């Protein structure tokens, strides 16, 4: 079993995503974590999938620039609240800041918080108890 603090790992991923680094590898004892930044890719003369996606984004400017998605970092079931008696974390129309908990993913008998990496107003929220895969869209922000 790996001995990793999940909050420190999230912080590392956020820092890499906001930087110009392409990848980072951190080794502590027997544990090695490698993080690759999908947002920053090397520029080449050959078009890549990211370049094609960027070109498509420019044709759909109004929607692509105004909406941000918060993706699931886990596989499991999306929970809009930590338990049955608590209020939902976010609803359509709520304003979310970077670092706010937008929901939870129940995975392997654990309730794992999902933290927003973007700020904005919630335009849609996935249904409570919906099955999610890694990178599924949980919440969109406008």
Q: Count the helices. How many?
A: 3
Radius of gyration: 17 Å
> Any idea how many domains?
2
Proportion in helices: 10-25%
Strand count: 10
What's the overall average pLDDT, rounded?
Answer: 77
Largest sheet: 4 strands, antiparallel
Report the principal-axis shape. globular
Beta-strand proportion = 25-35%
CATH superfamily label of the largest domain = RNA polymerase II/Efflux pump adaptor protein, barrel-sandwich hybrid domain
CATH domain topology of the largest domain? OB fold (Dihydrolipoamide Acetyltransferase, E2P)
pLDDT below 50 for ≥5 consecutive residues: which ranges? 40-64
Elements, N to C (H/E):
HEEHHEEEEEEEE
Task: Describe the overall structure.
- The chain is an alpha+beta fold and 142 residues long.
- The chain folds into 2 domains: 29 residues, no CATH class; 74 residues, Beta Barrel (OB fold (Dihydrolipoamide Acetyltransferase, E2P)), CATH 2.40.50.
- Helices cover 21% and strands 35% of the residues.
- The strands form 3 sheets. Strands 3-10-8-5 form a 4-stranded antiparallel β-sheet. Strands 7-6-4-9 form a 4-stranded antiparallel β-sheet, with no helix packed on it. Strands 1-2 form a two-stranded antiparallel ribbon.
- It holds the Pfam family Biotin_lipoyl.
- It comes from Faucicola atlantae.
Structural descriptors:
single chain; 142 residues; alpha+beta; OB fold (Dihydrolipoamide Acetyltransferase, E2P); 4-stranded antiparallel beta sheet; 3 helices; 21% helix; Biotin carboxyl carrier protein of acetyl-CoA carboxylase; Biotin_lipoyl; Single_hybrid_motif
């Amino acid at each position: 079993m790996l001995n990793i603090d999940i909050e420190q790992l999230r912080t590392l991923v956020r820092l890499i995503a906001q930087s110009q680094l392409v990848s980072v590898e951190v080794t502590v004892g027997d544990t090695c974590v490698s993080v690759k930044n999908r947002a920053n890719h090397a520029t080449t003369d050959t078009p890549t999938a990211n370049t094609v996606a960027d070109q498509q984004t420019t044709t759909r400017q109004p929607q692509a620039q105004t909406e941000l998605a918060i993706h699931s970092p886990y596989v499991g079931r999306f929970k809009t609240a930590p338990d049955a008696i608590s209020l939902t974390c976010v609803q359509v129309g709520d304003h979310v800041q970077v670092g706010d908990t937008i929901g939870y993913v129940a995975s392997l008998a654990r309730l794992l918080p999902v933290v927003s990496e973007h700020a904005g107003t919630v335009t849609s929220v996935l249904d409570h108890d919906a099955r999610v895969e890694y990178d599924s869209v949980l919440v969109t922000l406008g």
